[in-house]
Design brief:
Layout (H helix, E strand, L loop, with lengths): L1 H29 L4 H4 L7 H10 L6 H13 L12 H36 L4 H15 L2 H20 L21 H38 L2 H8 L4 H23 L1 H15 L4 H10 L4 H29 L7
Helix pairs in contact: 1-13, 5-6, 5-8, 5-10, 6-8, 7-8, 7-11, 8-10, 8-11, 10-13, 11-12, 12-13
Length: about 325
Amino acid sequence: MFFFTVRRIIASVLVLIASSFLVFALCAASFDPLAKFRQRQPPPTQEYLDGVREQLGLNEPFLVRYWHWLTGVLRGDFGETIGGTPVTDQLGGRLLVTGRMILLAIIIAVLLAVIVGVIGAVRQYKPSDYAFTFLAYVLIALPTFWFAAILKEFVAGGVNDLFGQQVLYTIGEETPGLSLYASGWELWSDRIGHLVLPTISLALLSFASWSRFQRSAMLDVLGSDYMRLARAKGLPYRRVVMKHGLRNALIPLTTVVALGIGTLFGGAVITEQVFVWHGMGEYLLQNGIGQNDINVVLGWLLVSAVFVVLFNLVADVLYAVLDPRIRLA
């Protein structure tokens, strides 16, 4: 297990280096750091633009620029924004805001997918299976922004009216200024109230597709020879399903979840816009793409790549836990 994990870590580091190179190459080809200078009135002279180009290091070869940026990232320096603020200082806070929503959404989506997938497979073609199938297809068909808007418009108001006070919030990740005077449970309850709807929006849309994979994998396992042998030995059906069947059926779901992290990041960008969260999504659209700031976009893309590679590494380790034969592959 140790050597298997070490091999996967080395492979993940190599993938991450290749990802950083591709990210830098795409951003270097797409962004023009001199655009803001060319738009000034009166237009700057060519000599001035040449001086700025040299100051920014744009005259250097591409590989040299990539090396300078990569070594800076390894030291924790993602460069500066157009306004002169270090990107690292802004990324940390934004990542905490988005990270808690994505991680909680993953946990909820996986738990629901496993439960619904197993029930759908065990009770195949029963009313519960048809109901979960219908729900999954409806959620898969819904656009992210539309589903988030529905939750914001109808669910929040209904819950607030039911309890007689505001319980679920639809704007921001916390009440503005609350952290200046509140602490403890008052602060965390406010953040939870802001977290519920965006998390549900991400979790349910992911759960819908993941539950279909879990149901399909569970059906394949239930029809296997070793499951029939376990039943022939007299083991209780529930024990056979949970101990022998579910463990093997989780392997395909692990793959799907690991590959879906990138999709969750994309969904988080849209969800944050609907609920006005000041997280990674807003940082990419407004501070990065909106202001043509290459360092902001580079930082966002690299952080996303790190999350994707990290979750795939976790998935590789889980493969070995769920099926020990994979360690010898």
